[in-house]
Design a protein that fits this description.
Distance between the termini: 23 Å
CATH superfamily of the largest domain: 2-enoyl-CoA Hydratase, Chain A, domain 1
Shape: globular
CATH class of the largest domain: Alpha Beta
Helix content: 40-55%
CATH architecture of the largest domain: Alpha-Beta Complex
Radius of gyration: 19 Å
Order of helices and strands: EEEHEEHHEEHEEHHEHEHHHH
Number of helices: 11
Low-confidence stretches: none
Strand content: 15-25%
Number of domains: 2
Strand order of the largest sheet: 1-2-3-4-6-8-11
Largest sheet: 7 strands, mixed
Amino acid sequence: MTQTTNTLVQKHTEGGITTLTLSQPEQRNSLSMAMLDALSEVFTALESDDETRVVVLAAEGKVFCAGHDLREIRSQFDSHEFQLALFRQCSKVMQQIVNLPKPVIARVAGVATAAGCQLVASCDLAVAESGARFATPGVNIGLFCSTPMVALSRNVPRKHAMEMLLTGEMIDAGRAERLGLVNRVVAAEELDGTVYQMAATIAGKSGHALKVGKAAFYRQLEMPLSEAYEYTAEVMAGNMKAVDAQEGISAFLDKRDPQWQDK
């Protein structure tokens, strides 16, 4: 078990599961430049962390993430350079989550709005407690949620994404599940059990297979059908050369548990 604590993001690893906890509840876990820098740093480190097989993204307090720090943004109204750097850094972090060679599960308790909703949408999986709520409310303050739109529109049907973006209204956890923004909605007291059971199930798989599969999933999404099949046929043929694939198939046929080497 390893644990690292700083004022912005806490990191705890146990049993192959690393939990990252946004730790500024008094700031509604806003994605300030400092928070984004901290997240970027930890995701970079996780890329080569052999101890971590699955990542859980959580938050302290009653708000999962309220999006960007509007006070920070207001203090920099006159700096186009800062605004561009902020949104670029946010976009980088979201892409780091997608490109991380380990699955990322959002554990959502409370409200996730604007870039906070984007954060949930960027994760591979999401489990929410029944009281969670979601919104992309930038339109309400004259700042359309354009970067959150990228992740949102890749997770929920087009017209529902547009409704969230154009109205800025909150949706409850049940609707978020129906739209595909989250995988499961559970009672608050069942949230940790559900999240960590899911994480443990995934952590028990071949790390090599998870890495190959996650990368292929996102790449093929943007391809035409025939190109996607050609690409994934090559991926599977390459995957067959892996030690774990040959071990897994042999273990299945021999009716025994596989011994993964993550290669």
